[in-house]
Amino acid sequence: MSDAVRKFSLTGRLILGRFRLLGSRHRLRTDQTGLRRPRGQLFRKYVSLFMGLISLVMLINGALDFWFSYRENRAALVLIQQDKADAVAQRIAEFIKQIEGQIGWTTHAQRATGSLELRRRDYARLQRQVPAITELTQLDSSGKEQLRVSRFATEVVGSGADYSREPIFTEALADGVWFSPVQFCKNSEPCMKIATALSGRDAGAAIAEVNLKPIWDMITALKIGQDGYAYIIDRRGRLIAHPDTSLVLRDADLSAAPQVIAARAKPVDIKAPDRQSAAPKVMIGKGIDGQSVLSVHAAIDPPGWLVFVEVPLQEALGPLYGSGLRTAALLAFGLGLAALAALVLARRMVVPIRLMQAGAARLGAGELNRRIEIHTGDELEGLAEEFNRMAGDLQKFYADLEKKVEERTAELKEALDQQTATAEVLQVVNSSPGNLAPVFDVMLEKAVRLCEAVCGILWSYDGASFHATALFGAPPRFAEFARRPIEIGDSAALVDIARCRQAVHVTDLAASDAYRAGSPLHRAIVDLGGARTGVAVPLRKEDTLIGTIVIYRQEVRPFSDKQIALLENFAAQAVVAMENARLLDGIRAARDAAEAALHELKAAQANLIQAEKMASLGQLTAGIAHEIKNPLNFVNNFAGLSVELLDELKESADPGIATLDEDTRAEIGETIHMLTGNLEKIAEHGRRADGIVKSMLEHSRGVSGERREVDLNALVEEALNLAYHGARAQDANFNITLDRDLDPAIAPIELAPQEMTRVFLNLFGNGFYAATERARGNGGAAHRPILQVSTHDLGYAAEIRVRDNGTGIPPAIRGQLFQPFFTTKPTGEGTGLGLSISYDIITQQHGGSIEVDSEPGEFTEFTIRLPRNGQTAGRGA
């Protein structure tokens, strides 16, 4: 952007700042054009304000409506249930009062003192008048039974059964009337005994057994809503009437139900006006089936029973749920309207400001052809017009300059694109010497793009027909046609190319003679591919036609000479790539055949050698070590003895030597000194050889769990020398550079030296193998095998690193290295157990860790950490 445009942008932003439309600095943000823009808090502020106010009012209204509806519905339900409970209680009380009144006329004095025959007739008439009475018994003043009349048993006279101590007699005399607990007559129907004191002095009592089945019928016939029901309990809380008679027959105990406990806590005072002193008659409790119910009760006095009317809570509050859903729907609808209204109002207030802001940002970014469209009839509209006028002036000023710059830029871009495309094609040719598919794909893509075409085809020519080797941008139907062999006679353009070996340019394919003559290729190109203008360039190897590159446009627009020349350049590159691929295929075929034969020969030889080595390696190692041990002990012993003898000889010969001249004495002294030094060297190397032999014996004997403190550097050095000399013994041409970086300050560490020697030998041997394999792959001259071994004291652990510059390990198989029988070596060159055993020795036997890092073709590095004093080596990872 030029200085004038930046000045214009700054001016516009200052003006908007005067109107306070861009907000404070701390609320600005950067858009895609690099300008800082406000976060748009105004629109969200208005929407949130409207939504909050309306939502608050509607929520309060909905909550109040729900609360009052709940109270009204519950009060109405309770009133209905209480009326039914009171009605049932009254009917049952009247039923009992009626029976009690019927019994009463038989207890008058004149009846009570009458003869037994008279009383028998009175009892029979009473049973006819009151079917619910099934049995009547008269007791005299001493509580002895004098008469019993029953509907279902033989009449008993003067049995003398003693009831004097029974509550049925004592309490009847004391209270005038007594009600027994409900029992089941014939094990199926409820019944109760009512005892009434006879009138007159020492008259006794009359007992009536009453069938309560009519009460069952009342409870069963009572309808309370859809799933409501009523039931009766006696003073003990036992169920005596219920629509489900099986519950009554099981003598269900409801004394523990919450509603029963609450009702029995303060019995109803039936004498109180409107029963004001009674306990609350409504509560939410648990029904017999365990579900929540709305329960109402009423008292039946006498005989002190309670009748309960219950409705499932879900049914009782059903209308309230519907009201709640309607309120929620109304609230959601109101919130939607509030959101819509808030959006509309906020948009009408904020949209002009945002339009001004967006327009100023576009003009400031250099989009001078854009105009700010605001029609508010106020100062904002005038400001927008001022911006538009300034943008128009700047647009005219830059029009000519931009046109010249665009023309020059287009020329430079075209040249650069052609050079870049040529370089990219050459790069693909070099990177894919034996694979022509990516070369042809890139070549066609570049040719079609740079020549402004839509479709491109590379045909190969076998002397009789053309074959589509690569296609780019071809429609599916034409691509299907082009993949079939094309005879040279099917196209006049192909005939011209085969004859003249020059480019053919057709301005309008639909108007060509070949199209009118019905050429299959021209018809397919025009009708299936939609092509109108095409150019074909031959692929020539010397004077032989090997193919052609063809590109098409879907409009009649000739290709320029520069575009045709570029296409010919691509054709020459295609010929070079095809020739290189042909030569490389021949070389590869010959090389592959030779390598395959050599590989098979080496594999067979290696298998034979490996089989023989594996069979005798253990015995050979132990035998060699034992055979060397004896002469080596002899050499060590006699070397030490020779030093002592030489010292004694020197002491004995000193007097005689002293008589010799100075030169002779010096020569003799030098000779004795050389002999002493040689013997000390023999002793030193003998001790070293003895250590190597001991290591060979320990290694051949297998696993040893003995742990002791050792010098780690000496152990690594000894294993490295043993591995190196072993490799040299197997291959006289073996050579590798050993790079040691052993930490001199490392402290002794407790470990099993035999086991760790086995680990080091395995890692060193693998490093030797990988480094020499890479040297063999590179011809042996360009690569120098190197094995680096380093030790470091980490304080809590000792670290050993073994790094080779060999072939490396691919990431795909790196996780399998420590699995038993997995090896990266060819068949016969490895057992796959070395790294697995090493992993067990380090991690299980020493509590350490081993890690591997590798770059294929560069290096492989194993890192071992051995903890001190039982610490965990992973701490250093």
What is the fold's blueprint, element by element?
Layout: H1 3-18, E1 28-30, E2 36-38, H2 41-104, H3 109-112, H4 116-129, E3 133-139, E4 145-150, E5 156-157, H5 167-175, E6 177-179, E7 183-185, E8 189-197, E9 205-211, H6 213-221, E10 229-233, E11 239-241, H7 245-249, H8 258-265, E12 282-286, E13 292-300, E14 305-312, H9 313-316, H10 318-364, H11 379-431, H12 436-450, E15 455-461, E16 465-472, H13 476-482, E17 486-487, H14 492-500, E18 504-506, H15 513-516, H16 520-528, E19 533-541, E20 544-553, H17 561-658, H18 662-701, E21 708-710, H19 712-730, E22 737-741, E23 749-751, H20 753-777, E24 786-793, E25 797-804, H21 811-814, H22 834-845, E26 849-855, E27 859-867
Parallel strand pairs: 22-24
Antiparallel strand pairs: 1-2, 3-4, 3-9, 4-5, 6-8, 7-8, 8-9, 10-11, 10-14, 12-13, 13-14, 15-16, 15-20, 16-17, 18-19, 19-20, 21-23, 24-25, 25-27, 26-27
Helix pairs in contact: 1-10, 2-10, 10-11, 11-12, 11-17, 12-17, 13-16, 17-18, 19-20, 20-22
Folded structure, characterized:
The protein has 877 residues and is α+β, with helices and mostly antiparallel strands. 54% of the residues lie in helices and 18% in strands. It has 22 helices and 27 strands. The strands form 6 sheets. Strands 3, 4, 5, 6, 7, 8 and 9 form a 7-stranded antiparallel sheet that branches. The chain has a 6-stranded antiparallel sheet with strand order 17-16-15-20-19-18, sandwiched between helices. Strands 11-10-14-13-12 form a 5-stranded antiparallel sheet. Strand 3 (133-139) and strand 4 form a beta hairpin. Helix 12 (436-450) packs across helix 17 (561-658).
